[in-house]
Design goal:
With 292 residues, the chain is an alpha/beta fold. The chain is built from 12 helices and 11 strands. Strand 6 and strand 7 form a beta hairpin. Bound molecules: 1,3-dihydroxyacetonephosphate (13P).
Length: 292
């Protein structure tokens, strides 16, 4: 089917207590592994892309790979731009037919974040594209952005309310709730009280960033509270490399490239399927597609 916008299916996920996996693709093989994992489990899926990756491949090639994969699939697939601070890149992705984008103004003072996110909101919604926006500062490393422990900051509840009031049709809202990008050093300290307060007052679906390394209980707790989009990047990127390198170690004399690509794809796909089962989105493709 054609690429779908993510907002309506995320609202369905939130209303029905499951999470939709949002995986950061790297290349065509990685995007194919994500869509194949979702297809095998009949699950809705979000293929998202870090800005560095878009800048490397270009918004058009990525757009056509994922559109082609979506058209051949029977599950709904959204194509989303992750953590972007540059409105020009956002416009390029919209022009190339992407179905949602994230503006990340979290490093700006609140008023400035509100103003710039509002501008991105107007650009995206007038093009029929969903917007994700962030408040607070999610720690860790995502793409070229490094937020050290002392710089990470939980979202302020009153600011969350004011922010979402200005942008009631956000596809998904990303408040910092204590999770972090990258591999966790210890256990993530999630501010469930804050998350619950936010979800009791705001009906926009919530994005759970920093999915790599969270426990099944943590995923379930956050999804039950209203996190409908669950982001996985670091773990997927690691499997992209390990899938290749493990086979190299196992068969150092193998000179044919295809088995490496297949090993890489299988490693990524197995993880996508495990996460979909954990988030409870398996078997939800038709309902999510109807909502979209
Ligand atoms: P991880 O890299 O920790 O999986 O986080 C992904 C993410 O939130 C992307 O925005």
């Amino acid at each position: 089917m054609a690429l779908v916008p993510m907002g309506p299916m995320l609202r369905h996920a939130r209303a029905n207590g499951y999470g939709i996996a949002a995986y950061n693709m790297i290349d065509y093989n990685s995007a194919a592994s994500i869509v194949a994992g979702a297809s095998e489990l009949n699950a809705p899926i979000i293929v998202q892309v870090s800005v560095k990756t878009v800048k490397y491949w270009g918004a058009k090639p990525v757009g056509s790979w994922v559109r082609m994969l979506a058209e051949d699939a029977t599950v709904p697939v959204a194509l989303h731009l992750d953590h972007c601070t540059d409105l020009e890149v956002i416009k390029r992705c919209i022009d190339a037919g992407w179905t949602s984008v994230m503006f990340d103004g979290s490093s700006l003072p609140f008023e400035e974040n509100l103003a710039k996110s509002g501008e991105a909101y107007r650009i995206a919604t007038s093009a029929g594209v969903g917007l994700e926006a962030e408040i607070g500062a999610i720690g860790g490393v995502e793409d070229d952005k490094v937020v050290n422990d002392d710089e990470s900051r939980l979202a302020d509840f009153d600011e969350c309310i004011a922010f979402c009031k200005e942008m009631p049709d956000l596809a998904v809202f990303a408040p910092a709730i204590g999770t972090a990008h990258g591999f966790y050093k210890g256990e993530a300290k999630i501010a469930y009280d804050l998350l619950d307060r936010i979800t009791q007052s705001i009906d926009i679906p919530i994005a759970l960033h920093g999915g790599t390394g969270l426990s099944t209980d943590q995923f379930h707790r956050c999804i039950a509270s209203g996190c409908a989009k669950v982001n996985i990047s670091t773990g997927h990127k690691r499997l992209f490399i390990d899938g290749f390198c493990d086979l190299r170690e196992e068969k150092p004399k193998l000179g044919e490239p295809l088995p490496f690509i297949i090993a890489q794809r299988d490693a990524m796909k197995a993880d996508v399927m495990a996460m979909i089962r954990t988030f409870g989105s398996d078997g939800r493709a038709e309902e999510a597609a109807d909502a979209a």
